[in-house]
Specification:
Strand order of the largest sheet: 3-2-1-4-5
Number of strands: 5
Shape: globular
Radius of gyration: 20 Å
Largest sheet: 5 strands, mixed
């Protein structure tokens, strides 16, 4: 027992447990089949944004660690701005591909990122594992997927009719398994099912947390250098969680 320790926990609390089970199972199945799908020319990638990455410059150098002494970090800093990283983790091999680094994560930013990612292998199939953020089921994304997949016909009008009418209708279109480019959505409040979140944690611990950055440009270079170094010896994650274990974790069984 360690009563001085705690960690945040977000209750998934799904309205429809069966739909939760279906979505969880679909994501786990994609992870299990990722290498097989890659052999068929289909990329399975975990995709998300890491927002609010701060370019902090410490006012004074760190005090190095030594025998019996932890590293000392200056408390005061200068903030030089923030940025957002949008990245993809190729599930079967662990490569981080086509990262986007910029000041925002708006609808247009995410749609442009997906287009950039698909552009690395434009004739292949793509499955993006994402959470339920509005920008992941946007009008811009529907229009891009329809254009890239050669889907013709009236898509309707946002807020009024057709595929574009609502988030639910857009999500159904974007997750259609018949499309060459499609999206697999983690259950609500379960973005931790997305393997890119594991990689974001590694990036933070190994490259950002102890850094000192005199500008956003320096921070961008640090992130890109780390990604290049990671890709020299990528480490795919071994996913062992089953749907039943996930249901226990979120207290549905």
């Amino acid at each position: 027992m360690q009563p001085h320790k705690s960690r945040y926990w977000l209750n998934a609390n799904p309205d429809d447990p069966e739909e939760f089970r279906r979505q969880s199972a679909a994501v786990c199945e994609l992870y299990e089949r990722a290498e097989q799908l890659a052999e068929q020319g289909i990329h399975v990638v975990g995709t998300d944004e890491k927002t609010g990455i701060q370019a902090l410059e410490r006012l004074y150098p760190d005090i190095p660690m030594g025998p019996g002494r932890v590293q000392g970090r200056e408390f005061e800093y200068v903030r030089h701005g923030t940025l957002c990283l949008i990245a993809n983790l190729e599930i079967w091999c662990g490569h981080v591909i086509a990262p986007s680094v910029g000041p925002s994560r708006a609808e247009a930013d995410f749609a442009a990122h997906v287009e950039q990612t698909v552009g690395t292998d434009p004739l292949a199939g793509w499955v993006f594992v994402v959470d339920n953020l509005d920008t992941h089921q946007s009008e811009s994304l529907v229009l891009y997927v329809a254009r890239a997949c050669g889907i013709e016909g009236d898509l309707g009008e946002k807020g009024k009719s057709g595929v574009l009418k609502s988030k639910a209708s857009r999500k159904a279109f974007l997750s259609d398994p018949r499309h060459r480019i499609r999206f697999a959505y983690t259950p609500r409040h379960c973005s931790w099912l997305n393997q890119i979140e594991i990689w974001f944690g590694i990036l933070t611990r190994q490259s950002i947390r102890r850094g000192t950055f005199s500008s956003v440009t320096v921070l961008i270079k640090q992130i890109r250098d780390y990604i290049n170094s990671w890709n020299e010896n990528p480490k795919p994650f071994t996913w062992t969680a089953t749907t039943d274990e996930i249901l226990v974790k979120v207290r549905l069984v």
